[in-house]
Amino acid sequence: MILLNDLRMAIVTPPKCASTTLHDSVRHLPTELRAWPVLGPSLDGRIDHHTRALPAGCEDYKIVAVVRHPLGRLVSLYHHNCTWHSCRGLAAPAFWFFVNQIARGEIGDVFYAANLTRWLDGLNIAHTVKVESIDADLKAIGLEFPTKLPKANAAHRCGWADYFTQPGLLETIKPWAEPDFELGGYKWPTESAS
Known about the structure:
Elements: E1 2-4, E2 9-12, H1 19-25, E3 35-37, E4 40-41, E5 47-48, E6 62-67, H2 70-87, H3 95-104, H4 110-113, H5 116-119, E7 125-130, H6 134-140, H7 169-184
Helix pairs in contact: 3-7
């Protein structure tokens, strides 16, 4: 979460939704905005920058939620999971296996298992900002960074559609992903797009 005290605004940054980019970029905002990164309890109980808990005295702040194309976010979660495995000397699962684990609720770690709808549940969201158009969306709500935001943790991989090559994989993940399509105003892909 990032607090923008002069704008009375809190930006909630779920995992794999430009959270590192935004938190790293706060230092470039004008000091008069009094922007502060916030650490606190996340949905999974860990203390980190993905917190949803508004600090005392900020209950009336407008909440801005950062969202991302659900399938692109899922691919990013997968690569984060691969890194987690690799750092521990473990073999990472294949993408189709990871997707099936998410769809069946077999991954206990909320960082990976929670879709955005679950991550943001119960918050009174005033605005959503899409990762795909983050600079323009932030500017539209009165927050302009002095330079175009860099993409921290971004990998130059193929698009999400190139991961969904196994027949039926899109339909498998649809119950998990579909609420986020609605939340962010994204369109469910047609078979030709996958």
